Amino acid sequence: MRQHRTPRLLGTLLLVAAAGISVVGAAPAAADRTVTPLGQVVPAPASVDASGSPYRITGGTRIRVDDSREARRIGSYLAEVLRPSTGYRLPVTDDSGRDGIRLQLTRKDAALGEEGYRLKSGKGAVTITARGPAGLFHGVQTLRQLLPAAVEKDSAQPGPWLVAGGTITDTPRYGYRGAMLDVSRHFFTVDQVKRYIDQLALYKVNKLHLHLSDDQGWRIAIDSWPRLATYGGSTQVGGGPGGYYTKAQYKDIVKYATSRYLEVVPEIDMPGHTNAALASYAELNCDGVAPPLYTGTEVGFSSLCVDKPVTYDFVDDVIRELAALTPGEYLHIGGDEAHSTSHEDYVAFMDKVQPIVAKYGKTVVGWHQLTGATPAKGALAQYWGLDSTSAAEKEQVAAAARNGTGLILSPADRVYLDMKYTKDTPLGLDWAGYVEVQRSYDWDPGNYLPGAPGSSVQGVEAPLWTETVSTSAHIDYMAFPRLPGVAELGWSPASTHDWDAYKVRLAAQGPRWDALGIGYYRSPQVPWPAE
Ligand code: TNX
Fold it and tell me: Are 478 and 429 in contact (CB under 8 A)?
């Protein structure tokens, strides 16, 4: 019965899609959910041409991959997503053929860049082509979203498994599309971080910024200063046991992130936010006295001792060991809320520390206070101000941007995932205000900061501070449904930006999160389908 309806339904969808209108209203009837319109994806694809017959995955479908390690690996990843719910065998093969699910790496189409892809779907095949493996992987995420939400379940479901006919050609707006997890205020295990990585990958996020140190805990083993982890990592907000990553565990996170085409950006926050380090080694303190470990949530009370030579031995060792563990380009040195460091000391400190980052082959990222010192050539500043931030502070950042400092935009009153949604939502802080879903999505990174050239914007990042967040269920609830909106700001062309269309696409993600076991905030701003 359902299939008989499909051609007529499809005709309607095509007409509507051609008119550039979004397709699914709130609470569509069950039969209408059979074929997801090609454009109903988060982040919105750059270009959609809906035409032709749908492709159907069946028990005989094969996943045909190029004869390359990366394509084969991505093919197996896709098979692992599809097998439990479809109940099909879905063998991955490098036998060429014109049918099935085809994953192809070809350098031909320069316009796709390293992260773009083309997805073509028709009667006999759905073919994803990309220049680089990251593009192929992002195309696979799109394919997942074009299948019914039940495809995400881990037990056999009825289907049918149809992919609407036509072509998506898709490339990202920005190269830096990040999410930050604060593993210092509360510690999160390797498995919890992997779970978040999988969620980020669904939305084509390509940077995982790990906030590895703060007043409440030091979370990465450093061989030359072992007490940082063993003592400085031994607690967390509220006084729990804390924890830290051994080098092998950190490498495991990096490897897992890499397999999902995310680059890990590690942060060691300094010169402030350093109580855990100061507590671990008395000699790092100007008075030579180690303070006690800290389990509260105040900020701005700690500082490394800027005048002591040992401070720079410490920084050099930490950055050297961390850089050696990190294949990515960036190393984040924090630099925020150094309220216990004089301005003069702050500038002197940053002048000494940034060259250490360069010495170990990494590019500096710092919170935007770094623009109050002299950002190194090539450094990125991460802006975390709000609408109410003073014009002078915004101008300081904009002036640095005009001078060549790249920007990552993380406005706290838009994309801080630790802000409460409303006064009644249980978790989160509210110092930057309440951040509902529309507020989080409805701004343009391209002309956000007055006086900063659009070309200085490298992308966006959604930080999740964890003073009030201590479990994966908490992460789910704070990140969903805001995170996909930030991911879309990073990926989709500005021309697709439209809250009314977005909220309908976002609503269609709800059943996917249900299927994946992601508990989300059911914002009244979003027309979730009836359960
Ligand atoms: C400000 S944003 C901080 C963090 C807190 C956060 C809580 C920034 C660079 N610093 O230390 O965790 O607010 O929202």
Answer: no
Catalytic, 395? Answer no
5 CA → ligand 1 middle, Å = 52
Q: Does any ligand 1 atom lie closer than 6 A to the CB of residue 269? A: no
**Would residue 523 count as lying in a domain?**
no
Decide: 416 in ligand 1 pocket, CB within 6 A.
Answer: yes
Q: Quick one: DSSP state of residue 147?
A: S
pLDDT per position as a tens digit, 207-251? 999 999 999 999 999 999 999 999 999 999 999 999 999 999 999
Asked if 473 and 331 sit in the same domain, the reply is yes
**What is the secondary structure of 155-208 as a DSSP string?**
S-----EEE-SEEEEE--S-SEEEEEEETTTS---HHHHHHHHHHHHHTT--EE
Ligand 1 atom with the smallest distance to the CA of 337 is 10
Q: Is the CB of 418 under 6 A from ligand 1?
A: yes
Q: Which two tokens stand for residue 129?
A: 């082509």
Ligand 1 atom nearest the C-alpha of 384 is 2
Q: Residue 159: which CATH number?
A: 3.30.379.10
Report d(CA 126, CA 57) in Å as an integer: 9
Please choose, from the candidates 361, 390, 363, 362, the residue with its C-alpha nearest in 3D space to the C-alpha of residue 378.
363
314-335 pLDDT per residue, tens: 999 999 999 999 999 999 999 9
Ligand 1 nearest atom to the CA of residue 214, by list position:
11
Q: 215 CB less than 6 Å from ligand 1?
A: no
In a domain, 459, yes or no: yes
Q: Which residues of 154-181 are buried (b: 16+ CB within 10 A; e: fewer)?
A: eeebebbbbbbbbbbbbbbbbebbbbbb
Give me the domain span that covers residue 399: 176-494
| Token pair of 215 as six digits | 């007043």
Counting every residue written for the chain, the total comes to: 531
Return the closest-CA partner of residue 322 out of 182, 195, 224, 214: 224
